Amino acid sequence: MNYNTHTLKNGLRVVLAPMPGTETATVVIMTGTGSRYEDERENGLAHFLEHMFFKGTKKRPSAKAISEELDGVGAVYNAFTSKDRTAYYAKVGAQYVEVALDVITDIFLNSTLPEKEINKERGAVIQEIDMYEDIPMRIVDNVFEELLFGKDHPLGRTILGPKENIRAFSRKDFVTYRKKHYNAASSVVCVAGNFDEKKTLEKIQKVFGKLPKASVSKPMLFADAQRGARVAIKQKSTDQTQLMLGLPAYPYLHKDEYALAVLSTLLGGSMSSRLFTEVREKRGLAYSVQSWIEKYPDTGYFAVQAGVEHGKLEKAIETIIAEFRKVKVKKVSAAELKKAKAYLKGTTTLSLETSDEVAQNALTSLLEIGRIRSLEERLQLIDKVTAEDLQRVAKDIFKSEKLNLAIIGPHPDEHKFVPLLRI
Hints:
Blueprint: E1 4-7, E2 13-18, E3 24-31, H1 45-52, H2 63-71, E4 76-81, E5 86-93, H3 97-110, H4 115-133, H5 136-149, H6 163-168, H7 171-181, E6 187-193, H8 197-208, E7 230-235, E8 241-248, H9 257-268, H10 274-282, E9 286-295, E10 300-308, H11 313-329, H12 334-350, H13 355-369, H14 375-383, H15 387-397, E11 404-409
Parallel strand pairs: 2-6, 7-11
Antiparallel strand pairs: 1-2, 3-5, 3-6, 4-5, 8-10, 8-11, 9-10
Helix pairs in contact: 9-12, 9-15, 10-11, 11-15, 12-14
């Protein structure tokens, strides 16, 4: 995969990723802002603003005009807001790449943020919050991250924000936030797939040249100071208990970043992983159990999530922690290490198979670490991981005093779970 990177005079970075073997093209514009760039009063503003970008521009004065134009070429389009980035994208048949570029560029640069649409959209955002509240497996990470990062740190707050904030935001708040965070220094553009590179670059240079340079906002850094195991319970009448058990881990570019990725894969990354085998196949404690890692430039975490029968929650916690303990005391076999690395390399390769995946991966990498990691580099980093690396990382990460347990379900007493948190 070739990534041709260009930097405009105002500092905007542009990535062109030609994929002549595909019949599609994807346009993604991403900016390095999200909920961790908000203060408490602003919490939810980045996500709400993302909604508002689809409500009209001078050229396309309504949400209907925007959606009809993209629907008219069969586009797959949307946007997302995370803790530290926001993106707008459209994937089309290659012959319609100019339409996708024109529309996504227009909403990014020229959204008018009409006041009447802000007032209407408040209800939609509040309904989105309520929708997720009805899906415990989708919000248990909110409980976990508040526990891990704390209520006073932006990483400990939700992306959607509280309802009272959504009801209070004014148009001025949106305009101020956009001016501060949507600038050339913080933004990146990528077109991937089958397209004319020269023509596309000329269009981007012409349209984005007017984007102010400004400066990159710096988020509040996180410093882990945890000294004891912690439990947080969101009491809710549910048919199943959702749990998330995890610990602070590594940021991007840490020397053991890929060793932890392999360890996570071995523990809970597949249907033949240790946790899936022990929790589901052998004991029938959960339908779904998985582990993953979350990374930021300054911090990260490792977590396991599962949905279990209320009365089997303690047994599930004990079983998960037992697997943490095993990888600390005994090196994994050569065969198991080989399988985990092969699985991770396979999923990494498949994650870069289509134009939309290529574009989003390139821009995420550029914003998070300042450059694009090639597939070859990532595969090499996985290959270098040894059994000794996994055991060393397990000893470094899996410590009793660093455990965090988040629960959603009908469990009134959090103190009963603390004695279980021993590795």
